[in-house]
Design brief:
Elements: H1 2-5, E1 24-27, E2 33-36, E3 41-49, E4 52-56, E5 63-67, E6 73-75, E7 78-83, E8 116-119, H2 122-139, E9 142-145, H3 152-159, E10 167-171, H4 179-187, E11 192-196, H5 225-233, H6 238-247, H7 257-271
Parallel strand pairs: 1-7, 8-9, 8-10, 10-11
Antiparallel strand pairs: 2-3, 2-6, 3-4, 4-5, 6-7
């Protein structure tokens, strides 16, 4: 992708690692409850190996693997760095899915739950499937398209969310004062969770460095966002450009934390036992 983009307005150095206060080092211990800051996944330490730790969500039982260098983590309100136990023998890293969860060997798709995960469009669905597809099949969660948040009220009325049939809704541009935030405030409830990202489109939830740019281009208000992006990338077809962008995504680490946290939160909500 770097080759077809060539030098120009999108070329330049990618963001380097930030600097800041050094976090206190905490030795990994089974039973320790921490939060991975990047994805907002909270879980209890169930195992570890050289360079990684496995956390299990207390609400859903979902297990996820995190590289120690993907931190920092939160212990209570304190930002920390997890380090391996001294003298502990190194175990081989577990096989994991693109979302970082522990792969379940020989698992088949579970019968679908009554609850659903709703996304705004086909690109959102394809990105969620690529990163979280294995987890969704194990948990029996079906992803359905809204084709725009404007129809969410009608969908909720027809679906009839309940304690046994929860709905998790993933939306774009969920920022104060936006149309999306007003709709979310009106329709969210005990059986409906609405989470999202601040981005105009799910394309922006892919880290810029993953697609070879330093930042996403700013498109002037009033111009269709995808149209402006296609011009900047010198690719007239949105469909072809999206396939190129999606092809660069390998795991949750290629996505912005806001999207990872939103999807993880919605999965937990839909699978939570009330």
């Amino acid at each position: 992708m770097t080759e077809w983009m060539g030098p120009g307005i999108l070329s330049g150095p990618v963001d380097g690692p930030g600097s800041g206060r050094v976090c206190r080092e905490v030795e990994i211990q089974p039973g320790l409850v921490v939060t991975h800051l990047g994805s907002r996944f909270t879980g209890v330490v169930v195992s570890s190996h050289e360079g990684g730790v496995v956390l299990r969500s207390s609400s859903t039982g979902l297990k996820r693997h995190f590289a120690l260098n993907s931190g920092p983590f939160l212990l209570g309100l304190e930002k920390i760095t997890l380090v391996g136990r001294k003298g502990a023998s190194a175990a081989p890293p577990p096989t994991r899915t693109a979302s970082g969860s522990i792969a379940v060997k020989g698992a088949t798709a579970r019968v679908a739950r009554a609850g659903r995960l709703l996304v705004e469009g086909v690109h959102d669905a394809e990105l969620v499937e690529k990163v979280w597809g294995d987890d969704l099949r194990v948990d029996g969660i079906v992803v359905e398209r809204l084709d725009g948040i404007d129809v969410l009220g009608e969908v909720l009325e027809a679906f009839g969310p309940s304690a046994d049939a929860r709905l998790g809704v993933l939306v774009d541009h969920l920022v104060p004062g936006s149309k999306e935030s007003r709709i979310a405030a009106q329709l969210a409830g005990p059986h409906v969770a609405i989470c999202g990202t601040p981005y105009v489109d799910v394309w922006q939830a892919i880290r810029p460095s993953v697609v070879g740019i330093s930042s996403w281009p700013v498109i002037p208000p009033g111009r269709p966002w995808k149209e402006g992006i296609c011009e900047a990338f010198r690719e007239p077809s949105p469909g072809r450009l999206w396939k190129q962008l999606l092809g660069r995504v390998r795991s949750y680490a290629d996505l912005e934390p806001s999207l990872v946290g939103a999807v993880e939160s919605l999965i937990d909500f839909v699978t939570e036992t009330v």
